[in-house]
Amino acid sequence: MNPLNPDNTEDLKQLIEFLKENQVGEFELERGDVRIRLKFTQPEGVAATDLARLLAAAREAAAIQPEVAAAAPARTSAEPPADPNAGLHMVKSPIVGTYYGSPSPGASPFVVAGDHVDKGQVVCIVEAMKLMNEIESDAAGVIVKCLVSNGQPIEFGQPLFSVRLG
Fold first, then answer.
1. Is the pTM of this model over 0.70?
2. Can you give the C-alpha Rg of the chain in angstroms?
3. End-to-end distance of the chain based on CA atoms, in angstroms?
4. pLDDT tens-digit map of 91-132
5. Are 116 and 93 in contact (CB under 8 A)?
């Protein structure tokens, strides 16, 4: 298996976004002969108990997607890369299920990059237990990027869209 294929790289990017959003200072995962160690600059005033709780959540997220472990070489730099999503709002999934970007196969997607969305506007569907749940934007702005693929399984709280507010 090629550990740096595009699917694994995208999963790793999502894991890094999750860790940054939750202000996790350090994350380490070892599977077989692949080891991931990420260190982020930690803002002052974050309690150690919060870090422990968030690190446990991050480890659970990594365990759900084991292919992420094979996606990255060990990181040695103490300085995190520039965050391309800095200043963007993330529309996150309120439930676990399967993501669908359009109301039916072959139909136009609800939204695409560049579309303006209003708060409360339907942006996608998440199928959970054979029920189709319309997911609404929780903010008004312009869709910058869809972060998931059609038919992809998604988790609770997983970012679906990045939105430039305004």
1. no
2. 17
3. 43
4. 999 999 999 999 998 899 999 999 999 999 999 999 999 899
5. no
